Amino acid sequence: MQDIVIFGRNVPALIYAPVIYFIWVSLLLVLKKVIFSRIQKFAEKTTSKLDDILLGALDLPLTLLVFVSGATVLEKIAPIIGDGELTRYFVVALKATTVVAIVLFLDKLFKNLIQAYSHKIEILKTSGGMAQGIVRAVVMGLGLLILLDSFGVSITPILASLGIGSLAVALALQSTLENFFSGIQIIADKPIKVGHFIKLDSGEEGYVTKIGWRSSWIRMLPNNVVVIPNKVLVNSKVLNYYYPETEMAVLVQVGVHYDSDLKHVENVTVEVAREIMKEVQGGVPAFEPFIRYHTFADFSINFTVILRAKEFVDNYLIKHEFIKRLHERYRKEGIVIPYPIRAVNYAQERKR
C-alpha cells in the first residue's frame, strides 16, 4: 500500500488503513443491528416461522461479510500494488471467507427449517437428526469443493472420483436405497400416516407408529410391533381404516327362527342398537342404526345389523355390548335364535 497525503502531510499506510477499516466495519455493524432489530420486531408480529428462521441464519454470516467488505473497500481505496503475489492471496482469502459465510448461512438455515417443521413431516419426527446430518454433509461438501476451486485446485478429478464412488455405493446399498426412496414415496403420496390404523394384505393390522428412512413400524393390538421394509409396504395392498374418515360401519350378523315376527324383530333390534350407540364408549350417538334381512338360511332368517363406531378399535366393544344386550332382550321378548337343525319331512318322503 502507498502512503497518502492529507492536508499536506504524508500519512503512512500502517496508520490510515486500520482507521478506514475500523470506521467502515463499525458503521456497517451498527447499521446491521438497527435494521435487524426493526425486522425482528416485525417478525414477532407474524405467525410464520420462516422470517425468524431466516433472521437467525443470517446473523453470523452477515457479520463475516461485513468484515470481508471492510477489507474489500480498503483494497479498492489503496490497492496492494507492491506485490502481485500478495494481492492474489488477499483476493483468494476474501473469496474463501465469503464462501464460508454462505456455507454457514445455508447450514443454519436448513438446520432451523428441519427443527421447526419436523413435527409436521412424518419421516422427520423420528429421523430429524439423520436428516440434519445428511443436509449438513451435502452443504459442507459443496462448500469445500467451491473453496478448493477458489484456491486454484482443479475439482474435476474429485468430481469424477465422487461419481465412480457414488455408483459403487449405490450398487452396494441397492436394497437400502430402494427402501429409502420407498419411504419418500410414502411421505409424498401419504397412503398412511403415523397414528393411522391399517391392515396389510399379509394379515397384520395395527397403528402406524413410525415411518422411517428404511422401514415402517406398526404396533398391533396385542402390543407387538411389526417392522416392515418400506419397499414391501409400497408394494402391498393396504386397508387404511382412517380414510376417508375414522368413523366406520360396524356390521353384526344375526339369525332368528322362521316363526318369528320379522317386524317385531326389527323394532326390538333397532331399539337395542340405539341404546348401544348412545351408551357405549366409541359409538356415534347421532347415527340411526338399521337392519337388512338378506338370507333364508337352512335353519334361520338371517339379517345384518348396521351400527357405527368412531374408529376401528371401538367396534370390538360395540359388538360385545350389542350381542350381550340383544341376547338378553330377545329372551325377554320370546324371540328365538335357533340352533343349527336339520328337519326331516316324513309326510313328503312318504308321497314319493
Structure overview:
Helices cover 59% and strands 16% of the residues. The chain has 352 residues and is of the alpha+beta class. It folds into three domains: 4-153; 184-240, SH3 type barrels (Roll), CATH 2.30.30; 248-333, Alpha-Beta Plaits, CATH 3.30.70.100. A hairpin with a 4-residue loop joins strand 5 (215-220) and strand 6. The mean pLDDT is 81.
Total strands: 10
H/E series:
EEHHHHHHEEEEHEEHEEHH
Report the radius of gyration as a whole number of Å: 37 Å
Judged by helices, strands and strand pairing, the structural class is alpha+beta
How many domains comprise the coordinates? 3
Main beta sheet: strand number and arrangement? 5 strands, antiparallel
Q: Average pLDDT across residues?
A: 81
Give the low-confidence spans.
none
Helix content: 55-70%
Which strands sit side by side, in order, in the main sheet? 6-5-4-3-7
Distance, first to last CA:
129 Å
Please work out how many helical segments DSSP would assign.
Answer: 10
Q: Which outline best applies?
A: elongated
- How much strand? 15-25%
Helix and strand layout, with pairings?
Layout (H helix, E strand, L loop, with lengths): L3 E3 L2 E3 L1 H33 L4 H28 L6 H34 L4 H29 L5 H17 L1 H16 L7 E4 L4 E7 L3 E6 L4 E5 H5 L3 E3 L7 E9 L5 H18 L10 E7 L4 E9 L4 H20 L12 H6 L1
Antiparallel strand pairs: 1-2, 3-4, 3-7, 4-5, 5-6, 8-10, 9-10
Helix pairs in contact: 1-2, 2-3, 3-4, 8-9
